[in-house]
Amino acid sequence: MDLNTDMYMHTCRSTRTCIHTPGSSPLDPQELPSGALSQILDGACILYLDGRLADTALLLAKQVLKI
Length: 67
Known about the structure:
Layout: E1 4-10, E2 15-21, H1 36-41, H2 54-66
Antiparallel strand pairs: 1-2
């Protein structure tokens, strides 16, 4: 999976522009190896989900509730 988001800041105008390039394909929850969720969330204090990959975000949110 190749996702890319570039953020351009214009300090004089106090604006920002985010350009999202989705790449090849979204992350499918079945692509995550067994035990990967625990490793991904290990040591995390905050989980921020932007809603772009809804199925994967839901899977991560459910894992957080188990911890």
